[in-house]
Amino acid sequence: MSEVQNFDVVVIGAGPAGYHAAIRAAQLGLKTACIDAALGKDGKPALGGTCLRVGCIPSKALLDSSRQFWNMGHLFDQHGISFDKPAIDVKKMVARKDGIVKQFTGGIAALFKANKVSAFYGYGQLQPGNIVKVKQHDGSEVELHGSNVIIAAGSDSIELPFAKFGEHIIDNVGALDLEAVPKRLGVIGAGVIGLELGSVWKRLGSEVTILEGLPNFLAAADAEVSKVAAREFKKQGLDIKLGCKVSGTEVKKDGVHVSYTDDKGAAQEIVVDKLLVAVGRRAATKGLLADGTGVKLNERGQVEVDEHCHTGVDGVWAVGDCVRGPMLAHKGFEEGIAVAELIAGLPGHVNFDTIPWVIYTEPEIAWVGKTEEQLKAEGRAYKAGSFPFAAVGRAVAMAEPAGFVKVLADAETDTILGMHLVGANVSELVHEGVLAMEFKGSADDLARICHAHPSLSEAVHDAAMAVHKRAIHKA
Ligand code: FAD
C-alpha cells in the first residue's frame, strides 16, 4: 500500500451528484479526487453514474428513437405523409444509444481533466478519520485522505426474491439493451422507469402488460393528470393492471410465467418473453462504510444527513440517490453543488419545494410543487386554473392536442403553489412553474408575462389567467 494521498475533497461516486460536487469543488480551488467503480459496456471505466450509463440519457435516447417509429405509424398519416411499412433495426437503435452514452461518459472524464479533478477507478470504502481506501480495477489499493469526504454512491435496482435477474427477468440495464423487440413484455411497477421503458418497447411493437401493486395509477401525480395520462396510455395499447400483487415467477420454455392476485383478489397468471422488474431503487451503501466511521444508515440503507447533506461526522457529507429525497439526477446535481459550496464557505442550498418531476412518456407528464390532493389534505385554501392543449394553436398544428396545464395558487396571496402538466413537451414547459415558484411569483405575474404565439407555452399563460377566470381562449 502506497502512502496516503491528501485532498481537500474526496468524492465517492461520479454519478450526477458526485461529478457535480467534484467539478464545483475543483472550480472553487479545492484539491479534489473522485472515485468511481463503474465499467461501461466495453469493460472500461465509465463516469457519469446510473444517469449517464443506464438511466436518464440512454432511456431518453431509446424513447426518442421509439417515438419517431411510433409517429410514423400513428401521426404522420394526419400530416399527409405516407411510405412503405416502417421497420426498426433494434441493433442500430441500441448502438446509437451506446454512442450517446460513450460521448457523455467520456465527456465527464474530459471535464475532470479540464478542472484538475483526480479520477480514481475502483471501489472506495470510507474508513474512520476521513480516509477512503480504494481497491482499483488493476487490483492495487490506494488510500485517500479528504479534509472533506462526499459520499455520492447512488442507487441500485431492487431485485425481488421471487424474480431474480437473468436473461429473461431484467432491470433497467437489460431493458436498455434488448437485441430484438420482445413479442410480450411484462413490467412489474407502473412508476417512472416502468412506464418509460414499457413505452419504448410498446412503441416498437411489444404487447406490454404492466402490473402495479397500488390501486391508484401514478399516485404521486395530480389526480387529473394521472387520469388523462392513463386514458392516453390505454389508447396506445399499454395494458396497465392496478392493484396487482405479484407473488411468483417461473422461467419456462414458452416464457416467463408471472403469477399475481388481481385487484379483486383472484389468482392470475401472464406469460411473457421478457419481464422488466421496475419496483424502485435502493441506496447503494452495502460495503461502503468500514466499522467505526460514525456515519449512520437508516432502515432503508440511506446515509443519514441533515438539511445541508452533512452526516454529523466532521467533514463527511452525502448527496444524491444514497440519501433521503427524490431519486432524481437534478436533485443530485443541486446537492452536489450545494455541498461543494458549503465546504468552500459559500451559502449552498437546495430548495426541495421547487424540484421538478418529469415522466418522458407520450404524452409527457410533469409537475412542480403541491398537487390539489395535497393542498386539500393540508386544508390550504387555493384557486386552480387549467387550460387544454386542444385549444392551443401550436399543439393542434403539431397534431398533439392531448393534455392540459393546471396552475394552483394560494387563495389569498395568489402565490403559485403548484403546476401540473400533461401533454407535448411539458418536460420543458414545467420550468415556467419552477422559475415562478422559485421567485415566489403569483398566478397573476405569470398571466401578465408575454408568451410567444403560437407556442405550447401559451397553455401555461392561459392556465395562469384561468386562475382568475380571465382566460381568453376558454369558453
Ligand atoms: P448514481 O448515478 O447511481 O451514481 C453513483 C455512482 O457511484 C455510480 O457510478 C457507482 O458505480 C458509483 N459508486 C457507488 N458506490 C461506490 C463506491 N463505494 N466506490 C466507488 N464508486 C461507487 N432521473 C432524472 O432526474 N431524470 C430521468 O429522466 C431519469 N431517468 C432514469 C431512467 C432510468 C432507467 C433510471 C434507472 C434512473 C433514471 N433517473 C432519472 C434517476 C437517476 O439516474 C438517478 O437519480 C441519478 O443517477 C442519481 O445520481 P447519483 O449521483 O446519486 O447516483
Task: Characterise the protein shown here.
The protein is α/β, with parallel strands linked by helices and 475 residues long. The chain has 3 domains: 4-156 and 282-344, FAD/NAD(P)-binding domain (3-Layer(bba) Sandwich); 169-279, FAD/NAD(P)-binding domain (3-Layer(bba) Sandwich), CATH 3.50.50.60; 356-467, Enolase-like, domain 1, CATH 3.30.390. Helix content is 31%, strand content 25%. It is built from 13 helices and 21 strands. The strands form 5 sheets. Strands 1-2-3-4-5 form a 5-stranded mixed β-barrel. Strands 7-14-8-9-10 form a 5-stranded parallel sheet. Helix 1 (16-27) runs parallel beside helix 8 (329-343). The radius of gyration is 24 Å and the shape is globular. The model has no long low-confidence stretch (mean pLDDT 97). Bound molecules: flavin-adenine dinucleotide. Flavin-adenine dinucleotide is lined by residues 12-18, 35-38, 49-51, 55-56, 59, 123-124, 152-155, 172, 193, 284, 288, 320-321, 327-330, 332.
Helices and strands in order:
Blueprint: E1 5-12, H1 16-27, E2 32-36, H2 49-54, H3 56-74, H4 90-114, E3 118-127, E4 131-136, E5 141-151, E6 155-157, E7 169-170, H5 172-175, E8 184-188, H6 192-203, E9 207-211, H7 223-236, E10 239-241, E11 245-252, E12 255-261, E13 267-272, E14 274-277, E15 281-283, E16 316-318, H8 329-343, E17 357-359, E18 364-369, H9 372-378, E19 382-388, H10 393-397, E20 404-410, E21 416-423, H11 426-438, H12 443-447, H13 458-467
Bound molecules: flavin-adenine dinucleotide.
